[in-house]
Specification:
Blueprint: H1 2-13, E1 28-29, H2 33-36, H3 38-44, H4 50-53, E2 65-68, E3 72-76, E4 82-85, H5 87-97, H6 104-107, E5 109-110, E6 118-119, E7 125-133, H7 135-138, H8 148-166, E8 173-180, E9 185-194, E10 197-202, H9 205-208, H10 212-215, E11 227-233, E12 247-248, E13 257-258, E14 267-272, H11 283-314, H12 316-345, H13 348-364, H14 367-373, H15 376-402, H16 406-420, H17 424-439, H18 444-461, H19 478-488, H20 494-502, H21 506-510, H22 513-554, E15 569-574, E16 578-581, E17 584-586, E18 589-591, H23 592-598, H24 610-618, E19 631-636, E20 648-650, E21 656-663, E22 681-685, H25 686-696, H26 700-705, E23 708-709
Parallel strand pairs: 13-23
Antiparallel strand pairs: 1-15, 2-3, 2-7, 3-4, 4-11, 5-10, 6-10, 7-9, 8-9, 10-11, 11-12, 14-15, 14-20, 16-17, 18-19, 19-22, 20-21, 21-22
Helix pairs in contact: 5-12, 11-12, 11-15, 11-18, 15-18, 15-22, 16-17, 16-22, 17-20, 18-19
């Protein structure tokens, strides 16, 4: 079996005749584009060679692309380490620096000098320095007949050895071995991480989040979804912890910026770090998503968000405290609504069932295929059936309790510290640091209101026999428990919290009701994992690996890309409009005039700043206008997902056209099934970004350090 799987991987990565593939589908791995994609890319208009995009021996486009923070993409846009990413990617950092007196979320922030750029503790960017196929080394000790647990142990041991050989913590150099194609292939990613990253510029939220939740995932869009940061390095240009002696990073590669724009049909490609897709998902998994996973998320988050919004609108301080929390919750909440809608409307389940029927017929046509792949779909079906109820309970615990009740969230951190740190002085200091970060963005009154609703949802949704042990004290009177928690826990009041730290008593912290609840949730979570979820995961992993391997063998003429897993990828396509529905046609770009047309002073999603209105009225657009209008956003048919936020949209010469920030509502099922006729990437036009930096903010120094091609 091992030889068969390695052979399939070789075929998957070396396909030379991918004629059966949908031309624009795929999040492609950079080392393989020369063999798999470059001919199609050039046929669409690319004027670069594959080595201009990825080359280990000289600088290439990949050296200008970074992981921004922990879940977005950014790009280097000047020789001096200037980073562009989305406003919503920088949102947490903008909030981190905001106060009622200096409300950068509301008013924006622009550093007019290097000295004004703000150090942002906790923020880092990561470069990918090398990508290497290590499949033979990882699978060297995998033997036929191994159980899934034995196989996992062998893979883990081999991967750890490879990672150790390529890592150097002192040099901020890391490594990761990542499975592809369900564990049929393994790639090594060698990284370099910079931890001194400073905030440089951000438009006000009325520009950076224009349209808010109303427009989220929708087209047409008119948002200036960008923010600017800078990488700092030691004087010798190496990664270093923050120091006043650090200097702007001297980037070996940065993106040139195009003012030439685009027209319908023009080549466009995107490089970045897509988070997760499930293109090899089966109908069994889709049933769980539609019937269980998405409905739970939509309901619980929706209830919590209503309460947060009420308090945010009533108090500017609460608005700042909860802005990032609300945005993060709302984004995936609306995504889940759209995904369920798309899966049903496009009959993705039916298409998957048809694919499975074709696969089964192919398997049954040959004894050797039956032996190799006959168990694939039955294993997946069994795994999904086995895990569903445990997954339901786990999801309610995570959504309603672990993250829904904020004191339980801090309680989880405190419980982990108490269990892992036996020295009281060190434990107290770690708890203090956790509390300082927590209480900066905490409203006791808001948490108490939300806590009561979250506890009631859990009580209504999970049977007493399946609840974590602490919930026995909650169920008889949810309101009374919520009041006791709010009035008595060390984790719901700063005076109690810091007072208890001053006279640290481990037993007092261990007995705190929020810590007790967090420990109880953790115990129940482990019970679920060991009871049903672990064996289900082993069944699923084996079935999924065989299913994917079988698909690759069944369709040798097709070019397959592995599912997204937050590794560096490239997707290519064109600038294109689309038909959203019968008689509903959407053009491929929007303009600043659309911002003015959407203005609604009574709706916080559609406030237009006075300065922007003045510039529009005066037609003071500089070199950033086309036919008397500033382009704001545009569409391509590139294949992206979450994690691609902030990714550069590049033209045929690798120059920056814009920043990807969203997908469209009609194709929210795209993580499961790519729909080429309607699937679109939404990006903010780089000309709008430059207009806002130059004309709106008057921050000409930033324009001057960029390489702009007119």
């Amino acid at each position: 079996m091992k030889k068969r799987l390695i052979g399939l991987v070789a075929a998957a990565t070396a396909l030379c005749a991918p004629f059966g593939a949908a031309a624009d589908e795929g999040m492609w791995l950079l080392p393989f584009i020369e063999r798999m994609n470059i001919e199609q890319m050039k046929a669409k208009g690319l004027r670069l060679d594959a080595r201009d995009i990825y080359d280990l021996n000289r600088t290439s486009l990949k050296d200008a692309i970074v992981i921004f923070g922990g879940g977005c993409t950014g790009e280097i846009i000047s020789p001096n380490g200037l980073i562009a990413t989305n406003h919503h990617c920088g949102y947490g950092s903008i909030q981190q620096h905001s106060t009622v007196e200096h409300d950068y979320l509301k008013n924006g922030f622009w550093a007019q000098t290097l000295e004004e750029e703000l150090p942002t503790p906790g923020l880092a960017v990561t470069f990918i320095r090398e990508i290497k196929d290590v499949t033979p080394e990882v699978l060297a000790r995998v033997k036929p007949g191994m159980t899934e647990a034995q196989r996992n142990a062998a893979v883990k041991k081999a991967s750890e050895k490879i990672v150790k050989a390529h890592s150097d913590a002192k040099a901020f150099r890391g490594a990761q071995v990542v499975p592809m194609f369900g564990g049929n292939q393994y790639l090594l990613f060698v990284t370099e991480r910079f931890t001194d990253v400073r905030m440089v510029g951000a438009p006000p939220s009325s520009v950076g989040k224009f349209g808010g939740d109303t427009d989220n995932w929708m087209w047409p869009r008119h948002t200036g979804d960008f923010s600017l940061f800078r990488v700092y390095a030691s004087p010798d240009n190496n990664p270093a912890a923050y120091s006043k002696d650090n200097v702007p990073y001297r980037a070996p590669k940065h993106l040139e910026i195009s003012l030439k724009g685009y027209k319908e049909g023009d080549y466009a490609m995107i490089m970045g770090f897509p988070g997760r897709t499930n293109r090899y998902m089966t109908s069994y998994e889709i049933d769980q998503v539609l019937e269980q996973d998405n409905p739970i998320r939509i309901f619980v988050r929706g209830e919590r968000q209503k309460l947060l919004w009420e308090d945010m609108m009533a108090d500017p301080k609460v608005r700042i405290q909860y802005a990032s929390k609300y945005a993060g919750s709302s984004n995936y909440w609306k995504n889940s609504i759209g995904m369920s809608r798309g899966l049903r409307k496009l009959d993705v389940r039916g298409k998957k069932a048809a694919q499975q029927a074709e696969f089964t017929a192919w398997v049954n046509a040959a004894p050797e295929r039956q032996a190799a792949y006959g168990r694939a779909l039955p294993l997946i079906d069994s795994a999904v059936r086995l895990r569903r109820e445990a997954a339901r309970i786990q999801q309610f615990m995570n959504e309603a309790l672990r993250t829904g009740v904020e004191s339980f969230t801090l309680g989880t951190a405190v419980n982990g510290i108490l269990e892992g740190q036996k020295d009281d002085k060190k434990a107290a200091e770690a708890i203090r640091r956790a509390g300082e970060a927590f209480f900066k963005n905490y409203s006791p009154a808001t948490d108490r209101k939300v806590t009561r609703r979250m506890l009631q949802i859990f009580a209504d949704s999970v049977a007493a026999a399946d609840e974590p042990s602490f919930f026995a004290a909650v169920r008889p009177d949810v309101a009374a428990y919520a009041a006791r928690l709010s009035e008595g826990s060390l984790l719901t009041d700063t005076a109690r919290f810091y007072g208890a730290l001053a006279n640290f008593d481990r037993a007092q912290w261990t007995a705190d009701p929020a810590v007790v609840a967090a420990a109880s949730i953790a115990t129940k979570s482990k019970e679920l994992a060991d009871g049903a979820l672990k064996p289900a995961a082993e069944l699923f992993a084996e079935g999924h690996r065989l299913w994917v391997a079988g698909l690759l063998e069944m369709n040798p003429e097709r070019a397959y890309a592995p599912d997204a897993n937050f590794t560096l990828r490239l997707t290519y396509g064109q600038v294109l409009p689309y038909w959203a529905a019968d008689a509903v046609f959407y053009n491929y770009f929007t303009t600043l005039g659309g911002v003015m047309a959407k203005e609604d002073p009574k709706n916080p999603d559609f406030i237009v700043p006075e300065r922007l209105k003045e510039l529009y009225k005066a037609k003071d657009f500089g070199p950033y206008a086309v036919d008397g209008e500033v382009p704001t956003c545009f569409l391509t048919n590139n294949d992206i997902t979450g994690g691609n936020s902030g990714s550069p949209v590049l033209d045929a010469e690798g120059r920056l056209l814009g920043l990807a920030f969203d997908g469209n509502w009609e194709a929210m099922s795209g993580d499961v099934a790519f729909e080429p006729e309607v699937q679109r990437t939404i990006a903010v036009d780089i000309r709008y970004v430059l207009f806002l930096i130059d004309k709106y903010a008057g921050c000409r120094r930033l324009i001057d350090e960029m390489t702009i091609v007119r």
